[in-house]
Amino acid sequence: MTTNNRQTLGPFMNLVCFQYLRNNTEDVAGRAPIIAAGRNRGYDVVASLGLVGKMSDPTEIKDELNSVLGADGTRLCIVQQVSPLPDGGYEVHIVESACTANQQAGEPLCAFTLGVFIGAIHALTGVRMTGKELQCQACGAPQCIYQITPI
Ligand SMILES: [Zn+2]
């Protein structure tokens, strides 16, 4: 089997296409498959770096995930802050999520991006995580804030 590496177009596509996939999948099947896809993506990104189970320091997690997902990485979002929670989880502050680009919503909208952080932090720490979004830029908040907690 050959791999199509898109010699002309490379690895990026317009966010409008991502938004159609994300929003229409939610309309048809709910958020679960979008979050699951994000979780797998986040876990696999960390695994590809050989970092499974190797990181728990919040500053190291922030720097690593911002380098992989931020302006010099896949451009999923910009990671501004990662803080520890008393239960062993982390609060993650991000801006410019792909999920919220040009979107307005009455409730937090990040499903794929939230999933990526659930999966990535699971992989980095070796602890299975779940997560919820406390505030979202699609609702007019200055940042998206995710609470990622151990299962
Ligand atoms: Zn959000």
Automatic annotation (TrEMBL):
Xref: Pfam families: V4R (PF02830)
Domain of life: Bacteria
Span of the signal peptide: none
Domain 4-vinyl reductase 4VR: residue ranges: 89-150
Protein's UniProt name: 4-vinyl reductase 4VR domain-containing protein
Organism: Oscillochloris trichoides DG-6
Taxonomic lineage from the root: Bacteria, Bacillati, Chloroflexota, Chloroflexia, Chloroflexales
